[in-house]
């Protein structure tokens, strides 16, 4: 019934998203690998890739004006054309700084396209089905991005990769051109307020920034690390794909555990667990060179933590805000913080990776350690104030936040009994471990003082 009533009418939107995410995942990794094989330094590659995230941040601010003016269908056509021009521009003329400009244009167009698609999903999703639609969106986004990595295992010329990326964008345009879905009405853009959100949810703001740093570093710098280590593009592709799949697999257990034990503990886990994996990547280069299986396993484990940080941060913000606060406005600000981290990461870590793997992973470990320690020092949210965890991919600027089912009080109340049962079970677990309880009490006491 759900498929026929809700999913089938918007299947063209899901297909368009899958095609775009596949091309996005493919080119994000390929460009860094190609530039490295061409002899460019990690710092220059980081600068080129940072331009993509700068374009994405500006799309979050300015693209909605065009969408409101000319409509979703025409906007999608315009942004698709811009993206295809940018992709083919890479094949026509090779210059690092020209490519940086093209990456900026690609980032703007890609995130603008996601805003259009997510607006449609939000419009066609009923209040009862938004959680399911958002879950399907998350699965499609992760799987398609992972699939894009595997395309790089094929023996194709660089020009063919850019042509394939253009074809994927054009196919997504075709899916939108034949759809009969009514165009949605996009709400006026609201300005971000970092100080306001920091006063409400400081841990959520820090977590979203650190999550952006990790994801930005992963897509731009991790391929270079794997390439330097193995000198095999196919190993890079599998490493990236398995890390993304690790992020997808972790969403359900992380959500379940965070509902039971709280976002603070899970954010601390994500930080400290990331530190452990990063230390292994930093200290075991010899073993990783001899065993790509170990590299794949560590990548999968790293994906479980790094792709969980942002949705946990959004959940923490939802726990801390009261009913008078706007979820969409808060999500916009958190995503802007996430985008800032994604933009900064390749600039800093490109220089670090060019100097040594030790410095590269050391900086990432410091970010993760700060998140873990600050999470433990933060005030604990009472069980009765906790909201429901929803896996939210950090994709576009703000429209996806409007699909978040936590905006609907009836949906929250419907799922709150499960949350209450989880927290009650957590209380039994906590009482059975005196040492853990004492440590939690001391940590909460320091945060309150």
TrEMBL record:
The UniProt entry lists membrane topology as:
Multi-pass membrane protein
Q: Which residues cross the membrane?
A: 12-32, 44-63, 75-94, 100-121, 133-152, 158-178, 199-221, 233-254, 266-288, 294-312, 333-352, 358-377
Indicate where this protein resides in the cell.
Cell membrane
UniProt feature, compositional bias: Basic and acidic residues: 404-418
**Gene Ontology MF, one:** transmembrane transporter activity
Question: Which Pfam families does UniProt cross-reference here?
Answer: MFS_1
Glycoprotein as UniProt keyword? no
User: Mainly localized where?
Assistant: membrane
Chain segments carrying region Disordered: 404-449
**Cross-referenced Gene3D superfamilies, in alphabetical order?**
MFS general substrate transporter like domains
Please tell me whether the keyword Transmembrane is annotated for this protein.
yes
Q: Which UniProt keywords apply?
A: Cell membrane, Membrane, Transmembrane, Transmembrane helix, Transport
- Give the record's GO CC terms: plasma membrane
Domain Major facilitator superfamily (MFS) profile: residue ranges: 9-380
- Cite the InterPro entries for this sequence: MFS (IPR011701), MFS_dom (IPR020846), MFS_trans_sf (IPR036259), MFS_YcaD-like (IPR047200), Sugar_transporter_CS (IPR005829)
Q: Which PANTHER family match?
A: TRANSPORTER MFS SUPERFAMILY
Task: Return the protein name.
Answer: MFS transporter
- Give the organism, scientific name: Thiomicrospira aerophila AL3
Q: What is the lineage of its organism?
A: Bacteria, Pseudomonadati, Pseudomonadota, Gammaproteobacteria, Thiotrichales
